[in-house]
Automatic annotation (TrEMBL):
Keyword DNA-binding recorded: no
GO molecular function: protein serine/threonine phosphatase activity
SUPFAM superfamilies: PP2C-like
Catalytically driven reaction(s): O-phospho-L-seryl-[protein] + H2O = L-seryl-[protein] + phosphate; O-phospho-L-threonyl-[protein] + H2O = L-threonyl-[protein] + phosphate
Keywords assigned: Hydrolase, Protein phosphatase
The protein's name: protein-serine/threonine phosphatase
InterPro entries: PP2C, PPM-type-like_dom_sf, PPM-type_phosphatase-like_dom
Gene3D superfamilies linked: PPM-type phosphatase domain
């Protein structure tokens, strides 16, 4: 098994990469559910850290992080993403010698119409869930990223 591009938050004792490895070992296999649980455990670890550090460092509650993970296990590639990162696989076309990029994940960014529609559908009672501010679509008028770790969002 190989994990790639896991990101570590400063001050966090838990990384997505080590958490995925732990869950995969515990379950004795790799699956999308194992990666989902690892993302959730990483987020819970950081939120616990925020709770402990809040009184000394209240600014810690305002941080977030994007995370992109790729795992190859038993010949299968698993990709997971929260935030506005994108996984791309390059494939060599032997006949032409060209490398063709194949997108493997989608960014969770309010600049995309489908992301705005999903947010509006998920929050029908909030007319300000997505706001066009200074010519840029933002979630709640603040950030462009829809889903990210450490902000209480879904993976």
């Amino acid at each position: 098994m190989m994990a790639m591009a896991a990101r570590r938050r400063p001050g966090s004792s838990m990384t997505t990469s080590s958490t995925i490895s732990g869950f995969a070992t515990e379950h004795k296999f790799m699956s999308a559910d194992v990666i989902r649980k690892a993302f959730q455990a990483t987020e819970e670890g950081f939120l616990s850290l925020v709770s402990k550090e809040w009184s000394l460092k209240p600014q810690i509650a305002s941080v977030g992080s994007c995370c992109l993970v790729g795992v190859i296990c038993a010949g299968t590639l698993y990709v997971a993403n929260v935030g506005d990162s994108r996984a791309v696989l390059g494939r060599l076309v032997k006949a032409t010698g060209e490398v063709v990029a194949m997108q493997l994940s989608s960014e969770h960014n309010a600049c995309y119409e489908e992301v705005r529609q999903e947010l509006q559908s998920s929050h029908p009672d909030d007319p300000h869930i997505v706001v066009l501010k200074h010519n840029v679509w933002r979630v709640k008028g603040l950030i462009q990223v829809d889903k990210n770790m450490y902000s209480g969002s879904d993976c």
